[in-house]
Amino acid sequence: MKNRFIYLLSVLASLCIAVEASASHDIVERNYITGSITCDQLKDCLVQGRAWVPYPAYTDRDGWDRLMGDRKAAIISLGEEYLDYEWKVLKMTDYLELDISGNRTIMQDPYGANNRAIAALLAAELAEGRGRFIPQLINGAIHSCEMTSWALSAHIKSIEKRCVPCKGDTTLELTQGDLSQCLSWVYYFLHEEFDRIHPEFSRRIREELTARELDPFLERTDIWWMGYNPLTVLNNWTPWCSANALICFMLMEDDPDRLAQAVWKSMKIVDAYLNRIQGDGGIEEGPSYWWHSSGMVYEYLTALKAVTGGRIDAFGVDQIRGMGEYIVKSYVGGGWVVNFADASAQRDGRDFNLIYRFGNALGSSLMEGYAVTFRDTAPDVPRPGLFFSSYLEALACADEFARAGSSYEPSAYTWYPETQFHYMSSGDVFLAAKGGNNNESHNHNDVGTFSLYVGGTPVLIDVGVGVYTYKTFSPRRYEIWNMQSGWHNLPVINGVEQRNGDDFKAADVKSSPGAFSADIAGAYPQEAAVKRWVRSYVQKGNSVTVGDRFELTELKEAARINFLLWHEPELASPGLVSVVSDGRRVSLKYDAAAFEATKEKVVLDDQRLRQVWGPEIWRLTLTASKPALRGNYKYVISAE
Predict the structure, then answer these.
(1) Where are the alpha helices (DSSP H) in 90-210?
(2) Do residues 202 and 157 lie in contact, with contact meaning Cβ atoms separated by under 8 Å?
């Protein structure tokens, strides 16, 4: 009982630990969006009465046939899977499980199943237009209206400091916003059809959307992702929630003054996000989060451009271009991507259509060519999801995307000077290294780490993140092994690993084609007694020389240099480690007189990690056999 009480105290203490920390970067008042127009000018250019909607009315069957094209039958078939769907009830104990065990999925999985059903039924009814899916769609929509909250338990916790929903809940978060947007499209397309059955259905949907999305968005300023607190770190929540709110107002709001107020507020919020993140376009959370960070900036700006009749168009901004092209530049090959922080190492090919549309808006041949190159590896139109605007856009662009003929040439060298990401390919070797700090969004303690790929296959790896639990975003986050620097390709100095926080960061970071270096001493706490530790990477052909030039103020314990490998390394002989990955042999040479090499197998019991790496990975450790206050170590990695 005592242990459970202590755990609950730690949960309560966490509050918004991931978002309420002091900002990782200075705020740069770019204000690309609000700086392009005044509030009074905005009112004059807003498109009223939903005239901005580019899609056919529900009754325009010829229009929907043209839009759906040869995808129509498949869309209808998917909806048919839900004609007899039993809408799942979320119990209060499902929400409470977050506090009891830290498990989020017990609440999220049935809720997600309901939401996928709503989206599929809406898409099917728009495709077929015979009313066959409407009764079940009404069931799903009103079932949702009967819920106390549309927010996930973990997100209620982070915003309202409780995991259970309360009557009158006004939590504005990701899934709540997605469902609000999807139901807004349900109302827009089908409210007249609903009224023919009974007017209460559409009336109830409008009432709930007003109470759960429209009014709270206008009234609340205390929610962290809105950015009213200048010390709050903003992440992908801000453009995602803002895009949902904007589209809901564009579809549901009939009062021109309230519409203008909401649009202006959303503009200020997204500007706050763009002002606080790095201006070079690098995404700290990694490629897995591109869809819900940069991708949501695209969705937001697309909606804003539509509702202002093209008056506000930020796609010419360099920062936006950098954010868009990041998804291409972080691609290694063979389905693998650079995966610092909470990203997965495997490419998420969910929506090349979105990459194409974003690239088209930017005039980026790099993005368009990348999307076209890989379009056949994924459906040309993704399955309908709660962010229904993106699904409709994908349908409208599908034929153009299918006809597009272009390719892309991967960049040999990419440097993000503010995010401090360095990518370099030479011969068959791709190297990714980073500087940065240990208060980045979705941070791992990984300042100075690197990943190395040969022929597009990972060899020295960043294992990534496991299944999210409440612990992932709590004060106990860095108890999780794969968040720790000892489980990255980094040194353990005087027995001490890196520390998380804003002050723990790289210094004197330098990047050029073929070389990267950073003094990572500042990423370690005082007890590491390190004055300087310059980690460097020099790349030539199929070889990378990793260097550690260091100076300590005190010698407490021998340095340990860790390397994480996907496959088992062979300690071939003193001074030589060899590993075979995807048929290629890679060697790591070190000074046998300076180090003793050991290896350990790491069994992966986390489902998310196993899906990427399989049942195990390996850690190679070089332990200094002659500890010294200062020195210069080198390790040469070569691919045959």
Answers:
(1) 92-100, 105-128, 134-145, 153-160, 174-197, 199-209
(2) no
- 246's CB contacts (< 8 A; 6+ apart) are 262, 263, 266, 300, 303, 304, 307
Q: Which residues does residue 616 pair with via DSSP β-bridges, in sequence order? A: 603
**Average pLDDT of span 275-288:** 92
The two structure tokens encoding residue 368: 């368009």
How confident is residue 25, by pLDDT bands cut at 50, 70 and 90? low
Each residue of 413-451: pLDDT tens digit? Answer: 999 999 999 999 999 999 999 999 999 988 999 999 999
pLDDT of 191 > 90? The answer is yes
Computed over every residue of the chain, the mean pLDDT equals 93
Handedness of CA 305, 306, 310, 311 (dihedral sign): negative
Sign of CA dihedral 99, 386, 356, 80: positive
DSSP code per residue over 22-51: PPSS------TTGGGS-HHHHHHHPPPTTT
CA distance 509 to 415: 11
Q: 94 is written with which tokens?
A: 């499902």
pLDDT of residue 12: 33
* Residue reference for tokens 């999305």: 213
CA distance linking residue 620 with residue 242, whole number of Å: 45
Structure confidence by residue, pLDDT tens digits, 489-543 = 999 999 999 999 999 999 999 999 999 999 999 999 999 999 999 999 999 999 9
How far is the C-alpha of 449 from the C-alpha of 488, rounded, in Å?
6
What is the Cα–Cα distance from 69 to 252, expressed in whole angstroms? Answer: 28
pLDDT at 71 over 60: yes
Query: What are the φ and ψ backbone dihedral angles of 53, each rounded to 5 degrees?
Result: -65, 125
Position 17 scores a pLDDT of: 32
DSSP classification of residue 496: B
Find the Cα–Cα–Cα–Cα dihedral 246, 251, 255, 257, rounded to 10°: 20
What's CA 520's distance to the chain center, in Å?
26
Residue 436, sorted as left (phi over 0), alpha (psi -120 to 50) or beta, turns out to be left
**Cβ 128 vs Cβ 74: under 8 Å:** no
User: Which residue has tokens 């995307």?
Assistant: 401
Nearest to 447 by CA among 434, 457, 460, 459: 434
Tokens of 548: 């550690």
